[in-house]
Structures are given as C-alpha cells and as structure tokens.
Design goal:
The structure holds three protein chains of three kinds. Helix content of chain A is about 75%, strand content about 0%. Chain A is mainly alpha-helical. In chain A, strands 1-2 form a two-stranded antiparallel ribbon. Chain B is of the alpha/beta class. Helices cover about 40% and strands about 25% of the residues of chain B. In chain B, the strands form two sheets. Chain B has a six-stranded mixed β-sheet with strand order 6-7-8-3-9-10, sandwiched between helices. A four-stranded antiparallel β-sheet of chain B has the order 2-1-4-5, with helices on one face. In chain B, strand 7, helix 10 and strand 8 form a beta-alpha-beta unit. Chain B starts with a helix and ends in a 5-residue tail after the last helix. Chain C has a domain of about 170 residues: Orthogonal Bundle (MetI-like fold). Classes of the chains: A mainly alpha, B alpha/beta, C mainly alpha. Chains A and C meet through helix 1, helix 3, helix 4, helix 5 and helix 6 of A and helix 1, helix 2, helix 4, helix 5 and helix 6 of C.
C-alpha cells in the first residue's frame, strides 16, 4: 500500500499557488513598499552623503582630510584636517565610556544577580525614564549644573570643556549599557550558575569566573553600542564641550566634536554648493562610517551570542 | 488489552459486516499516493486512504508517525509552513484540492478543523463563533445570531453559554473552550471536520462530552480524527487507519482492525507493545 | 581535602564576595540618585517659571522674564502629529511584512539587518539626509513637512522593532485557527493578530514619538531656526520652531536669566515625556497581565 520515494527525487511541487484575491495582492504590495522604505533610507543616506562629499574631495584631498591637524573651514587660510574633530569626538566618547562602564556594569550585575524581582520592576522603568530624557536637556544640565562644579574643582577649566560633555554623555549612555549588559547576563544559562554554586563557590566567584566570561562578548558588544551612541551624541555635546576644534586630549579645554561641528555650520546661513556647505556632508560621511562600522561589529557579536544560547 | 477493547466496541454487535458497509459508502475525501516533504525530510510515503461520507475515520499511530501531518494536508494547513512539498492527489468530492487554481480559502470553509490545544480568539464567545461567517462576508446581524446559536447548539454548548455570549471566551473551562472551537468550526458550514487530538488536553468528563458530540456530528459531517488514545479511536470511529513512520500500515473497519489486525505492527501497537 | 579545609585556604572569600555585592548595589543606587538629582535640579530651577503666560507668549530676544514657548510648543505639536501620521503606518506595515509575509530568506535577513543598523545611525545623520533629500532635492524647504519626514526616518527603526516584538508575542495558534476557518492572510492579520498586538505596538509607538518630541539635532541639521516668533500656519511653507530647539537656543545664551526660561521649557517638555513614558509602561504592564494564553 505504501510506496517510498527518495528525497533526492523531489520534483517541483504540483500544488497550486494560492490564488490571492486582488485585495490581498494589493495589501501585499503595499507592505513590501513599507519595508522598502528602510532600504531606500539607507541608500538615501549613502547617496546624499556621497553626492556632496565627492565634489568636496575633488577640492580637498582625502589625505589632507584624514591626516591634517587643523580644521579651519570658515576662515583663511582654510584647512580641512578632520583630526581635531576626530580627537574631540574620541575624547568625549572615550571619557564618557570610562565613567559609565564601571557604573553601568556594576548596576547590571546587581540587577541580574542580586536584585529581587520587585527592585528590578521598580528600577528598570526608572532607567527607561533616564533613557527617555532628550539630549538637549543634558546639554542644559551640562551648562547650568555641571560646568560650575567642574570649574570649582579645576579652576583652569574652560567654560565649556570636554569633561562637562563626558559627565553628561556618560549619564546618557548609562541606561543603554545597563539594559544591554543585563540582558546578556541573564541569558547565561541557569545550569552554569548552579554547577558553580554546587562546587561551593561564592557569589563573587560565580559572577567573575563563570558568568562574566560566559557573557563577555555580549557585554563588549553592549559597550561598543554605547560608545557608538556617544559618538553620535549631538546636542548635549555641542552645548557642553564648546566649539573649538583642537588636537588635544586635555579634558579641561574646550573641544569640538564632529557632531557639534555639523550643528555649528547648520546654524549659520551658508549657501548650498559652497565648499563650507559640503563640509557638513564630508564630516557626516566620516561620522556615518565610524558608527556604522562599530554597529555592524557589535550586532555581529550579539547575533553570535544569541545563537549560542538559544 | 484487546479483550478490554472489545468490550468497548459499540459497533461490534451492531454492524457485523462493517467493512462491506464502509466500502459501499461514497468517499467524501480520498487521497492517492500522497507524499509529503518538510524540506529534505519525507514525512509521508504514498498514502492512499478513502474517508467514507458521514462516518468517523480515526488516524492512530505513535508520535511522529505522520498522522497529524496527513490530517493537515486535508485542508492544506501545511501551506502555512515554509519549504514543504505535497505530491499525489487529495480529492474532496472527487476534485483535487491541490490542483492549480484551487481556492484554499474556500477549501477551508468546506473542511473545518479543530486543534489539539483549544485556541479560542481573545474575544467574546459570540465573536469567536461569528468569525468564520464574518470573514466569509456575512454582515446581517440576524443571520449571524442564527448561525451562532445553531453552531453552539450543535456543539452542545448553548445551554451553558447562552446568557453570556458577550463574555470573553478565555473565561470558559478547557472543555468548554474546546467545544467552542468545534462550534466555531461548524459555523462556517463545513462538510468535513478534521480533529487533531481534540480531547488530549481535557479531563475524562470533558473528553466524554466531546466523544458524544462526535457521535452526533457524524450524522451531518464527515469526520477525521487523529488520536493517541486507542480506546477513544475504538469508541468513536467507524474506520481506523494505522500510521507508522510515515507509512499507512493498515486501514479497516474499526472493530475489525482492533479485534483482528492483519499486520504484525498494528497488533504490536494496539496491544501496547510500543508507542 | 575536605570542603572546610578548602574554604580555610581562602579566608577572605566571603568578605570579598560581600564587598562586591555592596559595590554593585552602590552602583545601582548611584544611578538612581543621579536621575533623582537631575530631575530635582531641573524642576526646582524651572518650576517657578511655568505659568499660563509662559505657555502662551512668544519668546523675546531681550526680556527673558517675558519670554514664552508658544511658537515652539505649537511647532512641536504639529511636528509630532505629522510624524505620527507618516511613521506609524510605514513602521507597522514593515513589521507586518517582516513577521507575517516575508519568506525566511536572504531578502528578509537583509531588511532586518538594515533596520538594526539604521537604529544605530546618529540622529544628526538623518538630519543631513533630510537636508539633502527633503529640504533641497524635493524642494520642501525648511518646513514642518520636511521636519516631520526627517523625524519619521529617525524613529522608524524603533517603531518597526517594537511592533515586530508585539507581533511575535501573539501566539501562533490564533493565526492557525483563523486560517482554518477560511480567513485569508490579511483577514487573519486585521481581525485577529493586530487587535492582539495593539497594546504592545502602542507602547512602542508612544516611546518612539516621545523620542521624536525630544529630538533637536536632525531639526538643526535641516536648518530649522532655533528662535521663532510665530506658530506655523502652513506646513509646506512656514518656518517652524520646536520645544527642544527653543531650549537649545536659551541654554546657549550667555544671559543666565534665559537659562531659567530654558529650565521652564524643560519642565514642560519633561512633564509631557514622563507622562508618555508612564502611559507606555502602564499599557505594557496591563498587556502582559491581561491576556493569559
């Protein structure tokens, strides 16, 4: 009665495709259109950035752009070396990561390993609230509250300085570090913890020698994503750090980041097509490439981590 | 075990020539050499089975034997799973349901289905039953009321819920939910009812209610039921098909298959030696 | 070697473990203290400035104490309305496509990866896109529509990702049941899946819109003015302001009295944002409790 067919002999199915009513078809096409918007957005970003950057790089050599140590596009003699902006961005992002990472990781460990469900239920919405405070508000906080404190502690500090920005940006990226790290910590299987506890290990042993190593790649990804966020941070930084492109790692001086430069130029009234107008796109391209590379890298780590534990 | 079973077989005395009687009936659904593939894995091997009209056909066999897969072919629910292939013919009233241009939506209205785990929509009892007719385009309130009442009565649930049709279906007990799902399936006016272990998640009392229901419904519908429970198959079905490892091992009138199986594997299974 | 001897070999193990717990706990309390301190400082600084006049007056260049936020607030309301109008259908549509329609192949992976990466693109980059595409190429000028379209691109990834999550939370059995009753794919989505996923989606939409409400960088990049005296009346031609832009303008002022006005505006912005957040949290909580599948 029963016959066997080898699977290698699978032919095209004889089953007919579902005949969509015309309405179903229209819906399907509309939904594909929606999904296409995000693809078009990415293409749009690349095209727009390139369309103005290519003419820019025909006037300014790429080598000068990437290695020049002076950034003075708005006065003579014009120099287009992005390193000072790059340095400002690195200083602010690095400094804020330095402040936020220990605090964030400690909090994440507390939430995932120690806190009762009640504490978690109360603290996590508070962190979401913190994450929901707009950038410009942190700029205000930097100018009005943080800057006087910094200048009290370091009388030599400029009115706007990198440390200001580091402090507020570290607060801004805290919720991200905490929630992402907590997520990867909790993804470490129970069995691993239980095995360690069963051997008589203390909570510190288990956390530092078992859980953190198991979750390490995910935590690193969380840090990278947070740093990416700090790099792209705009309003707070442009209010807090000042507007002086400077190739220096002194956190008490006024510096300018890539984002803050874009804000500064956008606010002035500059005509489209000028070299200065095009600097927005060239700097934007540099910013986009930086964040994209870091993002793709972090997403890759997270993706592999999820595969491992699912 | 077979002796116990025999005591439960209500058909044994009533229909001495059950096999002849079954073969004399028209076949509501018939499959011819059906193969089924999940990707590279072949789950069904050349299944040919006729399901007589206004009778209950039970599909039995150990887990993973393909009986549920086969059931889901009968209303093309497997279309929803990606990367699956069906070959062979499945005929409903002599028409191939997998033919090019066949209307799946229309098919599913004619071939209703009840699932293992009751799955009412998170809506009112009324809306659950009225959903099928609604998506079929019935808007008239009076007609809908009538269909809902008739379906709930057929599913033996009307007396219990007639005063709370607006309540959420999720408040019903497990057995009531499953009968609601049956009523919901009946509301589209099907000709065939597929039941995938409809009572496996229920207590004995609710199970008995469902079984009584099946017995009544077969007057109007052709029923195909998948079950793990051999006593249940023996109690409710007229014809039983035994599946094993994707093959149809044996099919016959229920009383004959259970009392006098032709194949060794069937005998081993129904006597509880495996599965 | 017995267990007792082993632990004697590390006399400080327990102490170290406890110190570590205290360190982690302190970190958490520091975070909370920061949030509380932040909000308290802002509110105490700006609360005195909040009044009906403050909300209903235009800003002033010379008199900080007479300055108000009317044009900025009006601009923000229009912006959010338009942004919601553009972003919700596209975002939810994309999520439905990815969860319910797209075959599990490379095209789907491409779209999904692309969205994850777009979520990490700094908002100022969207501003540059808005400047090049909406303001210049499509010739919309620095208008409400251009601003709203730019903000739409900023929050689309957030809406898509949260809507996808809400759709995934709807049990598969509901879809199967609906299909088995002869419903088409879209009927199933429209009548069963979307209503069940709605609270979850709403949570995501509210959070995304609150993000849009606080965004200033993309608006600055497209060239929106940070000082404006009138509520825009034409969404294609008029210049527009927005609350975060007004805050930026006042904060950037050297006169400290303008900082008080900024604090007042922040109080209003934060009150709205916190209410939206609270609503989203309540919605999500009720959603998780309401339906026990």
């Amino acid at each position: 009665m029963a016959t066997t067919t080898t699977s290698s002999a699978v032919a095209k199915p004889m089953l007919a495709h579902k005949r969509p009513l015309w309405f179903e078809g229209v819906i399907h096409v509309l939904l594909i259109g929606c999904a296409a918007v995000s693809i078009v957005t990415t293409i749009g970003i690349v095209l727009i950035l390139l369309s103005q950057s290519i003419p820019f790089f025909s006037e300014v050599s790429l080598v000068e752009f990437l290695t020049g140590t002076r950034w003075t596009p708005s006065f003579e003699p014009q120099h287009f070396g992005i390193l000072p902006l790059f340095c400002g961005t690195a200083l602010v992002a690095g400094g804020s990561a330095l402040l936020a990472i220990p605090l964030g990781l400690g909090t994440a460990i507390y939430l995932s390993e120690y806190a009762s469900p009640l504490v978690r239920d109360v603290v996590k919405p508070m962190l979401e609230l913190l994450a929901g405070i707009p950038s410009v508000v942190f700029g205000f906080v930097a100018v009005v509250f943080v800057s006087p404190l910094v200048r009290q502690a370091f009388p030599s500090a400029h009115l706007s300085n990198a440390l200001n920005a580091c402090v507020v940006v570290s607060i801004m990226i805290l919720p991200m570090i905490i929630s992402l790290s907590e997520e990867v910590l909790r993804a470490v299987p129970r069995s691993l913890r239980e095995a360690a506890y069963a051997l008589g290990a203390t909570k510190l042993d288990v956390t530092v020698r078992v859980i953190l190593p198991a979750a390490l790649s995910g935590i690193v990804a969380a840090f990278i994503l947070a740093i990416t966020r700090a790099i792209g941070e705009t309003m707070a930084v442009s209010l807090a750090a000042g507007g002086t492109p400077r190739l220096s790692l002194n956190p008490l001086q006024s510096v300018q980041t890539m984002t803050a430069y874009i804000v500064e130029v956008s606010q002035g009234d500059i005509a489209a097509g000028t070299l200065e107008y095009r600097t927005i796109f060239a700097v934007g391209l540099a910013l986009f490439v930086c964040t994209l590379v870091l993002n793709v890298f972090a997403q890759g780590i997270l993706g592999r981590m999820r595969e491992k534990y699912e | 075990m077979p002796a116990n079973l025999e005591a439960n077989l209500h058909l044994t005395d009533v229909l001495p020539h059950a096999a002849d009687e079954l073969s004399a009936l028209a076949q509501k659904v018939a499959t011819k050499a059906v193969d089924f593939f999940y990707g590279d894995h072949q789950a069904l091997h050349g299944i040919s089975l006729g399901m007589p009209i206004h009778r209950v056909t039970a599909l039995i066999g150990p887990s993973g034997c393909g009986k549920s897969t086969f059931l889901r072919c009968l209303n093309r629910m497997n279309d929803m799973i990606e990367d699956t292939v069906v070959r062979g013919e499945i005929l409903l009233d002599g028409e191939d349901i997998y033919r090019r241009g066949a209307d799946v939506v229309e098919l599913r209205k004619r071939v209703g289905m009840v699932f293992q785990k009751s799955n009412p929509f998170p809506k009112s009892i009324f809306e659950n039953v009225a959903y099928g007719p609604r998506v079929a385009g019935i808007r008239d309130r009076g007609v809908l009321n009538e269909i809902v009442e008739r379906s709930l009565k057929q599913a033996a649930l009307w007396d219990e819920v007639q005063n709370r049709l607006r309540d959420s279906a999720l408040q019903l007990s497990g057995g009531q939910q499953q009968r609601l799902c049956i009523a919901r399936a009946l509301a589209t006016g099907p000709e065939v009812l597929l039941m995938d272990e409809p009572a496996s998640a229920l207590d004995p009392k609710s199970t008995a209610a469902i079984e009584d229901l099946i017995f009544e419904l077969k007057e109007t519908y052709t029923i195909v039921i998948v079950t793990h429970n051999m006593q249940q198959a023996a109690r409710v079905s007229d014809q039983t098909a035994f599946f094993f490892e994707g093959q149809l091992i044996e099919v016959g009138a229920t009383n004959e298959l259970f009392t006098n199986p032709r194949e060794k594997q069937t005998e081993d299974y129904i006597t509880g030696r495996f599965g | 070697m017995s267990l007792v001897q082993r632990s004697n070999g590390r006399p400080y193990a327990k102490l170290a473990s406890n110190l570590f717990a205290i360190f982690c706990g302190t970190c958490m309390w520091l975070c909370i203290a920061t949030l509380v301190l932040l909000l308290w400082n802002i509110f105490s600084h700006g609360w005195g400035r909040v009044s009906f006049d403050f909300i209903s007056s235009p800003p002033s260049i010379i008199f900080p104490e007479k300055s108000g936020i009317r044009p900025a607030l009006g601009g923000s309301i229009y912006l959010i309305g338009l942004t919601a109008l553009f972003s919700v259908p596209i975002g939810v549509g994309t999520a439905i496509y990815l969860e319910e329609y797209a075959p599990n192949n490379r095209w789907r992976t491409l779209v999904q990866t692309n969205i994850a990466n777009l979520a990490g693109v700094p908002s100022i980059v969207y501003g540059i896109l808005g400047l090049g595409l909406f303001v210049r190429a499509l010739n919309l000028g620095v208008s409400l529509v251009a601003g709203a379209l730019t903000l739409t691109l900023v929050i689309l990834p957030i809406i898509i990702l949260s809507a996808q999550e809400a759709l995934r939370a709807v049990p598969h059995s509901i879809r199967t049941a609906s299909h088995a009753l002869g419903a088409t794919r879209w009927q199933t989505i429209w009548h069963q899946v979307l209503p069940a996923a709605l609270p979850g989606m709403l949570t995501g939409v509210i959070l995304a819109l609150s993000r849009a409400l606080g965004e200033a960088a993309p608006l600055v990049a497209i060239g929106a003015a940070t000082y404006i005296r009138n509520v825009p009346s034409n969404m294609f031609t008029d210049e527009f302001g927005a609350l975060p832009l007004q805050i930026y303008n006042w904060t950037d002022h050297s006169d400290k009295d303008f900082h008080v006005a900024a604090a007042g505006a922040i109080v209003i912005l934060l009150t709205v944002l916190i209410s939206m957040n609270a609503l989203a949290i309540v919605l999500r909580y009720r959603f998780s409790k309401r339906i026990q599948w």
